[in-house]
Write a structure and sequence with these properties.
The protein has about 80 residues and is of the alpha+beta class. Helices cover about 35% and strands about 15% of the residues. It is built from 3 helices and 2 strands, in the order E-H-H-E-H. It has a two-stranded antiparallel sheet. It is globular. The protein starts with 8 loop residues before the first strand and ends in an 11-residue tail after the last helix.
Length: about 80
């Protein structure tokens, strides 16, 4: 696993779904070039879907730990599949 970057805030988007299977289906679509914003608006169970999944800027301690770790270890443009 990559080391967490030493930054105070990151900006991230997500698509929150209720099953690992749906998450994997969406990941395949993203890998095939489908638009993240559109998929978030269609599938996400989070109110952020109205903003295409955009969570804005946040610091450590603001999100559940598995998501926070992914957000702070990812490089710009990375996609992560997280099961919480």
């Amino acid at each position: 696993m990559a080391k967490e970057r030493k930054v105070k805030k990151v900006q991230a988007r997500h698509i929150l779904v209720g099953s690992k299977e749906l998450a994997e289906e969406i990941k395949v679509k993203l890998d095939a070039g489908e638009e993240f914003t559109k998929l978030a608006e269609e599938h996400s169970e989070c109110p952020s879907k109205k903003r295409g999944g955009d969570l804005g800027w946040f610091g450590k301690g603001a999100m559940v730990r598995p998501f926070e770790v992914a957000a702070f270890t990812a490089q710009e443009g990375d996609l992560s599949l997280i099961h919480i």
